[in-house]
Amino acid sequence: MKKKTTPKYATPATREELEILLGEYTLVEANHRAYTAELDISIAALRDRYVQHLTPVAARLEALAEAIASWAETNKPEFGDRRSLDLLHGTIGWRLGQPTVKTRPKARLEDVVARCRASGRTDLIRTTEALDKEAILALCAKGELTPETLAPLALRVTQEERFFITPKTEEK
Predict the structure, then answer these.
(1) What contacts 24+ positions apart, CB below 8 Å, involve 131-139?
(2) Among 24, 54, 129, 133, which has the minimal tally of Cβ within 10 Å of its Cβ?
(3) CA 17 vs CA 13, 29, 64: distances in Å
(4) What is the pTM of this model?
(5) For the chain, what is the total number of helices (H) and then of strands (E)?
(6) Residue range 52-65, pLDDT digits in tens
(7) How many whole angstroms separate alpha carbon 118 and alpha carbon 106?
(8) What is the mean pLDDT of residues 139-153?
(9) pLDDT at 1
(10) Does residue 137 have a pLDDT over 80?
(11) What is the reported pLDDT for 166?
(12) Longest dimension (CA), the chain
């Protein structure tokens, strides 16, 4: 099977050539939107066709899993010293998740940090410093910061310029 190649276009030399290319761009872009809309409609129809089957199946899977997990909870001695149990149709068990640090119920994070600080365990407290970029931009907009005042701080404000094409289309 031959690989399709996208045609390359030379940079237009005149405004008339530019108008021709922009006209072609507008037509191709309209085709692209039409195909995308058609694809979206097809995907939605396919999703609608299967959701009526998937919804009850997902509910049944959840109910079955709950019943199996309930049995496992009430019959832990069946597992012995293992975390899983091999059965005829599959394996059930518990997976150990990643360790996480949580505060005790009803404990506020601010109080926990204060307790760590009071007990001398500041090694358990993280302090993050970052530039307030929004404040820098606001001060530049007000004229309070300039390129000259930012330079000694090893900072600069940049703004990119991006090319755009907006085809003129008639929506029906």
Answers:
(1) 131/155
(2) 129
(3) 7, 18, 67
(4) 0.54
(5) 4, 2
(6) 999 999 999 999 99
(7) 20
(8) 95
(9) 65
(10) yes
(11) 87
(12) 84
